[in-house]
């Protein structure tokens, strides 16, 4: 049987491997090829001018924590940034919101979903975490800009594949 490394676990791929394990392995392999989004310098400068210094800093800290596989810290920082961006997006008329806030919200939603899907916990809680991650991506796609749409859609596909594999896996 062929086997691949996925994190610390060895996953066997063959006729006896579970569908869920193969989906996880494929998702992990594809996730490594995707470049995680970061705030463009112009967007970060605009946020600083608009009073969003803490939101921009939280996104940077979330990206750094995700790069170091510190998922709880990445989740905490991304959620703080998403809340700040959410507040800015819901202040005043929707057309009057600066596009920098939409881009920042999209990046924050990406890291909320990525970190939320990676944080450990019980097997029963995994489905809840994955659904919450999909919700964050959905909101990021609806309220965010168009800059990082490809990355959010890709992450949503991977999470949906894992959820589908969990449904099809025999109990």
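^ structure tokens above, recovered residues below v
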């Amino acid at each position: 049987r062929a086997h691949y490394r996925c994190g610390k676990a060895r996953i066997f791929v063959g006729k006896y491997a579970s569908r869920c394990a193969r989906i996880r392995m494929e998702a992990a392999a594809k996730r490594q090829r995707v470049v995680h989004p970061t705030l463009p310098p112009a967007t970060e400068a605009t946020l600083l001018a608009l009073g969003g210094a803490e939101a921009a800093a939280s996104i940077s800290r979330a990206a750094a924590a995700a790069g170091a596989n510190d998922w709880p810290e990445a989740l905490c920082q991304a959620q703080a940034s998403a809340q700040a961006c959410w507040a800015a997006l819901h202040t005043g008329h929707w057309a009057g919101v600066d596009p920098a806030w939409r881009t920042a919200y999209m990046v924050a939603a990406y890291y909320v979903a990525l970190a939320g899907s990676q944080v450990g916990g019980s097997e029963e809680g995994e489905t809840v975490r994955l659904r919450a991650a999909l919700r964050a991506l959905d909101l990021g796609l609806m309220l965010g800009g168009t800059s990082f749409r490809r990355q959010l859609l890709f992450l949503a596909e991977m999470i949906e594949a894992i959820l589908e594999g969990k449904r099809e896996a025999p109990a």
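DSSP finds seven helices and two strands in the chain.
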